[in-house]
Amino acid sequence: MTAMSDNSIAPVRRWTGFGLLGKGLFIAYLALMLAWLLFPIILVLLASFQGKLEVTLSASDFGFEAYKSIPPAYWEAFWFTIRTALSATLLALLVAVPAAWGMVRGKLKGHRLLSNLVLIPDVVPQLILGIALLTVFIPLHLANSFAGVLLALTALSLSTGLRFTEALLTGLPDEYEQAANTLGANRLTTFRLITLPLIAPGLAIAALFIFMQNLVTFELLYFIAGPNASPVSVRLFSDIVDRGVLPYAVAMAGILIYVAIAFYTIVAIVLGPKYMAGSVMSRKG
Questions:
Q1: CA–CA distance, 134 with 204 (Å, rounded to integer)
Q2: What is the pLDDT of residue 83?
Q3: Phi-psi label, residue 248: left if phi above 0, alpha if psi -120 to 50, beta otherwise
Q4: Minimal CB count within 10 Å: which of 128, 139, 206, 281?
Q5: Which 3 state secondary structure label does DSSP give 177?
């Protein structure tokens, strides 16, 4: 009996050892992946306090001189970027949410084809889109204007907003909406009082991703922007090409990272980790 017990326990010990080794390798793999993803961000943040890309670990090299030297033109470009990114995010969702609701809840024929067609701006290079929009915007006097940049960012953001909302509505059970309709609520009232509050956390996450995309978009805006409407990404690129990597340019790049982290943190705190993990209203009950 003892021998049988020893033989039955031995394989368990071998598998336990293998499991610990596999777990260790997996943790090392995740650590390397995380380091690879965070390395550019950490490098830029460190460089922003030194005003140069050749980062050193000497405490005497760190300071706020690069931030203090940011010229007014950069701050104007920064606030212009924030305004257009936020406005384009809200406008894109205002257009995409009703469209996705009509496609999913309205059982629109061919909605899958339409959903795939909306992805075209995502697969076509932004360089081509920028040239096409410039051709349209010049006769309409929209180039080098707030309205032109806003429309360009909105067009780029619509596909993301539509696909996010479509996924949210597809994963949302319709029992609550059916109950509201049974009690006499029309479709608009049901959408406003039932559907929209249920998918609001998911829309907040969609807004986060759209805003971050708008914040750093460059190729599309390079053709549309100008002296009167210059996003910070375009100004950074132009100055680096003309003058090289200046200290205040590195500092402004760090500020963009701070903005991205701040918006992500706000959404994560308000919604909680379960929504940030992707389980937004996809379960019944």
A1: 31
A2: 93
A3: alpha
A4: 139
A5: helix
DSSP state of 108: -
Q: Residues 163, 200, 174, 167: what is their CA dihedral angle, to the nearest 10 degrees?
A: 20
Question: For the chain, what are the domain ranges?
Answer: 2-39, 69-276
Model pTM score: 0.77
- 30 CB-near residues (< 8 Å, 6+ apart): none
Q: Return the structure tokens found at 13.
A: 């010990």
Catalogue the long-range contacts made by 20-24 (C-beta closer than 8 Å, 24 or more residues apart): none
Cβ neighbour number for residue 209 with a 10 Å cutoff = 16
Report how far residue 252's alpha carbon sits from residue 64's, in angstroms, rounded to the nearest whole number: 12
3-class secondary-structure state, position 1: coil
| Side-chain-facing half-sphere of 61: CA atoms under 13 Å | 13
Element (H, E) at 47: helix 2-48
Q: Is the pLDDT of residue 264 over 90?
A: no
| Owner of token pair 């950074």 | 236
Amino acid letter at 115? Answer: S
CATH of span 69-276: 1.10.3720.10
Q: Which structure tokens are listed for 3?
A: 């021998």
